[in-house]
Amino acid sequence: MPGHEEGHGHDHDESREWDEVYTEDGDTPRFSGRVNGTLVAEVADLAPGSVLDVGCGEGADATWLAGRGWRVTAVDPSAVALARARSAARDAGVEVTWVHAGLLTMPDGTGVHDLVSAQYPALRHTNDDAIMALLGAVAPVGTLLFVHHDMTSRHAMERAHEHGFDPGDYVAPADVADHLGDEWVVEVDEVRPRPGPLPDDAHHVDDIVLRARRRPTD
Asked: Residue 130 phi/psi, 5° resolution?
C-alpha cells in the first residue's frame, strides 16, 4: 500500500478539533481534491527532492508532488483528513509518508527538506515557535513556500470576525517574512489573485505568496 503513517507526539485536543472540522459534512470531502494552483506555479522551476507538506489536509498537494517525483512527508493533526489523504495517494499509486501530528509536535526534521510548503496553514502564534519550526525544516539552498489568504482588507477582517475567527491569532506571511535573516533570499513576496476556479461562496479572492530560499552554508 502506498505510503505509511507516523504518529509520534500529536496533540489530542488539536486532533479532535480538526477531526470535527473534517466531519462537519459527514464523509463528504471538505476540499476540492485539486492541487493548490500557487504550489504548481511556484515549484515548476524546482528539481524534485525532499518536501514537507505542512497541514496537508486531504492530501491533494502531497499526492500531486509525489506524482512528480518529490519525496513527500505530509503532516496534519487530523486523523480523518489523513485517512482521506492516504486513500487519494493509494488511488494515484504514489508513495507519501503521512505524519499524524501538529507542526510543533512532529518528529524532528530539522534542516532536511528541499521544500517546505505551507498552503493556507492554521498555525497559531506560540512565541514564534511555529515560524521557527517552518524555517528550521528547510535545508541549505532549500525553499520555503508560504501561502495564505490576504486578510488585510477591512472586508476580510469583518468576515473573519463574523465567523469567530481572529486572523491576528495565526501566523501570516508577513510574520514569517519578519523572521528571515541574512541567510535567506526572498524570491517572491506579493499579493496576487487567488487561483481559480473559486467556490461560489468564496470570501477571499486574493492571496499573499511568500517564497524564500535559504542560502548555502559556508
From this structure: -65, -40
